[in-house]
Amino acid sequence: MTPRFTRIAFRLPAIVILAAALAAIAIGGFSYFESASEVRRQATDKLVSLRESRHAALAQYFRSIEEDLELYSASAHVAAALEAFTAAFAGIGPETRDREERALRSVYSPEHRTGNADQLTSAGTPLTAQYFQLHNRFHTWFQFTHEVRGYYDLFLVSPSGDVVYTAFKEADFASNLVRGKWSGSGLAKAFASALDGGQAFADFEPYAPSDSAPAAFIARKIVRDGRTLGVLALQMPIDRINEVMQVTAGMGETGETYIVGPDYLMRSDSRFSETSTILKTSVATGTAKRAFAGESGIDVVDDYRGVPVLSAFQPFVFSGTTWAVMAEIDVAEVDTPIDTMRNFYDKDGTLASKFAIE
Questions:
Q1: Are residue 204 and residue 137 in the same domain, yes or no?
Q2: Is the same domain home to 232 and 340?
Q3: What angle do the packed helices 126-148 and 97-107 form, to 10 degrees?
Q4: In Å, what is the CA distance from 177 to each residue of 6, 158, 190, 259, 275?
């Protein structure tokens, strides 16, 4: 055999082998990138669906609160209670008001929501005696209503700002929201706005009468025959909002959904924290800022822990307040199957054929 034929005999198989190898690499690479793209697409679609479902559930919850307010404001029981309690407070003279309010708070407390009979006897003021009878008449219905609907507290406030009734009887009971020590509180803001505009929402902020825990209030003016009787206010429960946002189905190991307020502090608790993160954890991420700019979308950012996440965001607007609804999952978890494919390809070089068989 001549050298020329020898070279051809060696080159031809080498060319065939090289072509086959290049084809395998090309097919394997194509398969890897297609699979990686599909994994990311599925993760993106899933996260957007979770964000939208939480947004819808939150909207439904707030609609139910508005329906409660509408129902209560139309109730003859609420109107009668507000008128009766307000009339009782109106009978207090300015010189005895502070003493009468302190006496009422000594009779009623979170431990004695229906009244402490021993304290009633020792207080012995005209208002406490009259109020005790009124309270016995109206309290059972209000107590049942606010507990069944899951509100932290329910308030009746006179047009002049007297907190004439609360279900829970914290330190805000028998105070005045215009001139008293809680005049700058969220409850006072909700009362003033509702008195002026009919309905109002005060976003979460620390509320001193509730041990400075985060509290949000929604309030509505009560009107009968063109006459303003006062304001009904509800202190919203954190637990109910957390129930909406902390559903774990479909979230994987690192996924979570939560709410951010316009101050970039959380309005719901992180499902991974053992302590409350509301008004404590800052989320000034790029995606949160885009939500407050009115955008909805998904992007990769470093989250409030400094960890890269796939972050889906959407604004939520209620009664003049805007929140950001966030759905996030660690990029590392999203990329786990992609990393597995890449490592398999790097080690074996036959990714395409392996996946075709499997």
A1: yes
A2: no
A3: 50
A4: 103, 10, 10, 29, 31
